[in-house]
C-alpha cells in the first residue's frame, strides 16, 4: 500500500455520500491498482485531474437532483421568511424586504416546496414533529423567562428573549405544519387505525 | 425504469460507449475496463477512478450494464465487483456502433479526393 493511499481515501470523502457509499472502496482499490501498475506519480497525476473534474460535477448533480433541490428551496424560503419575521419583530424594518423575497420565492417555487413536504419518508415526518415539539418547549421557556424578567424599560435581555421566543414559535408552527403534511407510512396508518 | 428502445439512449456519451465496448468482450472489473478503454483508444481516452465508476453507475441505472452478484475465481477476483452488458446494453451498443459507422461512411465519401 502506497503512502498516497490514506490521502486518496480521505479525498474520496469529498464525493456525495451516496456515490461514496456505493463506490468508495472501489475507488480506493482502483487507485491502489493504478499505483501498483503505473507508479505513484502517474497515479496521483491522473487521480488529481479526475478529482478536480468529478467532485464539483457529482456534487452539482446531487444538488440538482429533484428531491434535494426541493428540500433546498424549502429550507431557503423558510430561512429567509424566519429572518424577515425576526428582524421586523426587533424593529429592523428592512427585514420586510426579506419577507417579500420569501413570499415571491414561495409562490414561484411552490411545486418544489410541495414535493419536499410530501416526501413519503416516515423518519422525516417524525423528525419534523420532534423539532416542532422542541421549539415549542423553547418558546414556552423563553415566554416564562420573559414574564419573570420584564421591567418598565425594554432592555437587551428582553430583546434577546423576544427574538428567541418568536423565532421558536415561528419554527414550531412551521415544523408542525410540515410534519402534519408529510404522509404517514402504511405501518403508521395501521397503528393509527388500531388505536 | 430503463427505456427499452435502444435508439432512445442515443447518442451515447463517449465515456459510456467506450465502457460498453469494453464490456462486449465479456464481464470485467473496473480496473480491467479502464485498461481496455485505454487500449481500444490507443491511449487517447484515459479515465480516472471516479469518471469510470460514475460512468458505470449511469450505465447500471439506465439498465445497460449490471453488476454480477457472484463471481468464481481467485481471491483477488472475489474482492472486486464485476460488470457485464445486459441484453438492452448489447442492443444499445450495436445501435451506437451502426450510428457511428454511418457517420464514418458519410465522412469518407465527402472527403474522398474529387468528391467536393
Please summarize the sheet with the most strands of chain A: none
First-to-last CA distance of chain A: 59 Å
Shape of chain A: elongated
The poorly predicted ranges of chain B are none
The CATH topology of chain B is Arc Repressor Mutant, subunit A
Please give the number of β-strands of chain B: 3
Average predicted local confidence, pLDDT of chain A: 77
Radius of gyration of chain A, whole Å: 24 Å
Short overview:
The complex is a heterodimer of chains A (195) and B (116). Chain A has 195 residues and is mainly alpha-helical.
What can you tell me about this protein's structure?
The complex is a heterodimer of chains A (195) and B (116). Chain A is mostly helical and 195 residues long. In chain A, 84% of the residues lie in helices and 0% in strands. Chain A is built from 9 helices and no strands. The longest helix of chain A is centred in the last third of the chain and has 28 residues, at 122-149. Chain A is elongated, with a radius of gyration of 24 Å. The mean pLDDT of chain A is 77. Chain B is mainly α. A 3-stranded antiparallel sheet of chain B has the order 1-3-2. The mean pLDDT of chain B is 88. Chain B has a single domain (11-111), classed as Arc Repressor Mutant, subunit A (Orthogonal Bundle). Chain B has helices spanning 14-23, 30-40, 49-61, 75-79, 87-111, and strands at 28-29, 65-67, 82-85. Chain B has 5 helices and 3 strands; from the N terminus they run αβααβαβα. Classes of the chains: A mainly alpha (195), B mainly alpha (116). Chain A binds chain B through residues 15, 19, 22-23, 26-27, 29-31, 33-34, 46-47, 49-51, 53-55, 57-58, and chain B through 30-31, 34, 46-54, 57, 79-81.
